[in-house]
Amino acid sequence: MYKIGELSRLTGVSNDTLRYYEKMELILPADRTAAGYRLYEPAALERLRFIQRAKMVGFTLDGIKELLSLRLDKAHHSCGEVKQMTENKLQEIEQKLTELKRIRGALRVMNDACCGGDESAEHCTILQALETGEPVKMEAPC
Predict the structure, then answer these.
(1) Which residues in 6-18 are b (16+ Cβ under 10 Å) and which e?
(2) pLDDT given at position 139
(3) pLDDT at 74
(4) What are the tens digits of pLDDT across the range 26-65?
(5) Out of the domains of life, which is the source (predicted)?
(6) Inside any domain, residue 44
């Protein structure tokens, strides 16, 4: 059995995060000591590592909770259900990447149009573009 501090050290997950995971019912202590300390079974360590790996590939805590339920009840769920979750996550990531590329392009245009001099920001092309919503006009070099 592990106390919360031991589990934290082994996984790099803070005590506060472990308590939050408990509140979300992602991980639950097996027991408590007479003093109220949480005690976790060795399986909790593997469960936390599963959670960490799922977070690293972009799953939310709600998604992880669903994955954990699929993992625990494999007999009543298919691999196809798990695959569908990853396909949904991939689609979400693709949409985010598209949006980030659009944002990067807009920022690059604004940044390239600004000379970045030390003069007053009164005529700053970046601020003007953000205030008016008009496309940035390339200014003459400062």
Answers:
(1) ebbeebebeeebb
(2) 56
(3) 73
(4) 999 999 989 989 999 999 999 999 999 999 999 999 999 9
(5) Bacteria
(6) yes
| 128 in any annotated domain | no
Where do we find the tokens 């949006």? 99
Q: Which residues contact 125 (CB under 8 A, 6 or more apart)?
A: 110, 113, 114, 136, 137, 139
Domain count of the fold of the chain: 1
Residue 140 burial (CB < 10 Å; 0-12/13-18/19+)?
exposed
- Domain encompassing residue 9: 1-59
User: Is 6 among the domain residues?
Assistant: yes
What would the two tokens of residue 133 be?
């919503």
| Beta pairing partners, 32 | 38
Cα separation, 60 vs 80, in Å, equals 19
pTM of the model: 0.72
pLDDT, mean of residues 100-106? 93
Q: Which of 71, 92, 94, 90 is nearest to 81 (CA)?
A: 71
